[in-house]
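tokens incoming
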């Protein structure tokens, strides 16, 4: 960071923070993943204060509850009246207020926890007031807090089989909803056990579920790309499981989004005789994945995306070198 002087240029720094946000939202997590993100944010605490307003910091990291919690705890984001309204508008989708209950008690005095939140706490046996230590631990973990989900994440096949048999659990079951989930894709969907295993690259449990007759569906492609385990993708191909709507482009874009570049290259080389450079460029710009951006495909058509997603240093360079006619009209469709 110091060699590239990331924190010395406001435009470059904003691009970098957007890149960091995309990686923290979508890249496969290992046990040290979140702590590394937190170390980087701590390193740039002063620059964030210097360059960004409170609202800008929130908007950059708004899709990641786990990172928002860290920023709020370290006074890098303050829940003021303006931010309260913004969080409240997204509350039903991401359960922000419920996840941030201790912090929101002060800022959201007129908004009690939702009925869903109380129901989840009831069945999980967690109370943020009476069982604060357990509540804090689960928030910091930022994953589904059910025991079976923990076993799947860790690919603990022996314990998984024992638990399934002991509790007579249906292998076709869905994972339970929880306020502690912080993966954006998993917040929006309620995956099956086999989808959850694919998402975390848990190959042993994935194979066990397959051998026990669990259907492999097109949806597994997206989960497997997040899991970043090529062996699971191999299994899908060997069993002729095609992506939804046979769209390998969707899979390609998902791999770009996750910054799983080896998988991107694999899909690109195997399923695309001629690359749709415009679609790939749009995905790269949206998710700040610079690995597949080539100089010669940056053109007037992509200039809109460059501005939309805050690629400020590239915009500045194109204008200064007069590579873009700012007054030229482009008719889409």
């Amino acid at each position: 960071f110091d060699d590239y002087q990331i924190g010395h240029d406001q435009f470059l720094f904003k691009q970098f923070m957007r890149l960091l946000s995309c990686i923290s939202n979508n890249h496969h997590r290992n046990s040290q993943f979140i702590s590394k993100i937190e170390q980087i944010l701590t390193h740039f605490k002063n620059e964030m204060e210097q360059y960004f307003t409170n609202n800008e910091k929130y908007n950059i990291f708004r899709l990641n509850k786990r990172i928002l919690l860290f920023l709020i705890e370290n006074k890098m984001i303050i829940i003021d009246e303006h931010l309260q309204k913004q969080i409240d508008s997204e509350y039903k989708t991401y359960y922000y207020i419920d996840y941030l209950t201790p912090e929101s008690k002060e800022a959201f005095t007129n908004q009690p926890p939702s009925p869903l939140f109380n129901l989840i706490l009831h069945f999980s046996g967690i109370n943020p007031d009476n069982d604060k230590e357990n509540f804090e631990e689960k928030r910091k973990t930022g994953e589904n807090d059910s025991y079976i989900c923990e076993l799947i994440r860790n690919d603990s096949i022996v314990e998984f089989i024992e638990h399934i048999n002991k509790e007579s659990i249906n292998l076709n079951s869905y994972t339970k909803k929880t306020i502690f989930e912080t993966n954006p894709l998993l917040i929006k969907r309620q995956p099956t056990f086999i989808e959850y295993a694919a998402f975390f690259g848990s190959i042993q449990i994935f194979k066990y579920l397959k051998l026990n007759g669990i259907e492999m569906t097109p949806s597994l492609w997206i989960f497997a790309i997040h899991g970043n385990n090529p062996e699971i993708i191999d299994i899908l191909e060997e069993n002729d499981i095609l992506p939804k709507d046979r769209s390998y482009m969707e899979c390609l874009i998902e791999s770009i989004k996750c910054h799983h570049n080896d998988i991107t290259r694999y899909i690109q080389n195997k399923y695309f005789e001629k690359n749709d450079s415009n679609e790939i460029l749009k995905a790269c710009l949206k998710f700040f994945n610079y690995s597949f951006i080539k100089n010669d495909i940056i053109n007037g058509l992509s200039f809109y995306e460059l501005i939309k997603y805050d690629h400020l240093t590239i915009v500045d360079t194109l204008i200064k070198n007069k590579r873009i006619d700012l007054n030229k009209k482009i008719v889409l469709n």
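note: The two ends are 42 Å apart (CA to CA).
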